[in-house]
Design brief:
Keywords: ATP-binding, Hydrolase, Nucleotide-binding, Transport. By secondary structure, this protein is of the alpha/beta class. The chain has seven helices and ten strands. Strands 6-7-8-3-9-10 form a six-stranded mixed sheet, with helices on both faces. The structure holds adenosine-5'-triphosphate (ATP).
């Protein structure tokens, strides 16, 4: 059963279509990259596909179940854009990762030893064992990103949806991320990754989908993607409109 099948997805904000009738699939064990410039609708599309943003039109099935009936949230690991997730959150690495286990709890209560073991394993896996008590906002961008990934790992998700995990992350951390994601795919995970630039992740991608102004303009091997870094053109325009916003993809 395919982890994700989306058909004809349209999302409108204030009467403007920012995603226009997009089809998107992620097969079992597949690593799909969703590429495109700033504002092309990538985040909105993936957020709609997992039910975080309402669709104006279209259908989505997660693991063969229509989105509206999908209850197995634990099968899904969402790694939001770092800025969206981290801004103003004083939590420690451990707390953030432990929040990934909430889907397993039948009611609010203490963590079980199984929860604690899953949290510790996920933190170790991303190489943050010695930082688990650090506040997230004291860590580097790359470490924050790894903590967010650990949260998704702690849920033992089958489909990981990651929004720009490489944005603002140095090359060494991108390499760590590539190794980690490569290992997860080998273990059978499916991944939908939103990105501007793929860096060391490029070699892992099975299929690329390019969005432009809310529509798919390319789908196929990553080597066939042209003008991948046209994003910078838009990117600068975005910054001029939002001069207070620092860094790549930090909106
Ligand atoms: N909640 C919202 N309300 C109104 N407009 C929105 C909202 N979220 C996104 N938009 C607009 O929708 C368009 C697509 O945004 P989206 O974040 O999906 O693009 P993106 O391709 O992911 O870009 P980025 O790389 O900057 O995240 C943009 O013009 C954005 O301003």
């Amino acid at each position: 059963m395919k982890p994700l099948v989306a058909r004809g997805v349209t999302v409108s904000f204030e009467g403007r279509d920012v995603v226009r009738g997009v089809d998107l699939e992620v097969g079992e064990g597949e690593f799909v990259a969703l590429l495109g410039s700033n504002g092309s609708g990538k985040s909105t599309l993936v957020r709609a596909a997992i039910g975080l943003v309402p669709m104006t039109a279209g259908t989505v099935e997660l693991f063969g179940t229509p989105l509206a009936d999908f209850r197995e949230r634990r099968r899904l690991g969402y790694v939001p854009q770092r800025s969206r997730a981290v801004a103003g959150v004083p939590a420690t690495v451990r707390e953030v990762v432990a929040s990934g286990r909430l889907a397993y709890r039948p009611y609010v209560g203490r963590n079980s030893s199984k929860d604690n073991a899953a949290v510790a394993a996920a933190i170790a896996r991303v190489g943050l064992a010695d930082r688990s008590r650090s506040a997230l906002d004291e860590l580097s961008g790359g470490m924050q990103q790894r903590a967010l990934i650990a949260r998704a790992l702690a849920t033992q998700a089958e489909l990981l949806v990651m929004d720009e995990p490489t944005a603002g992350v140095d090359h060494e951390n991108q390499q760590v991320l590539a190794e980690l994601l490569g290992a997860l795919v080998k273990e059978g995970a499916s991944i939908l990754l939103v990105a501007h630039e793929l860096g060391p992740l490029r070699q892992l991608i099975d299929r690329a989908v390019v969005l432009d102004a809310g529509s798919v303009t390319y789908e196929g091997p990553v080597d066939g993607v042209v003008h991948e870094d046209h994003s910078h053109v838009h990117h600068h325009a975005e910054h001029e409109r939002n001069p207070g916003i620092p860094g790549e993809g930090v909106i």
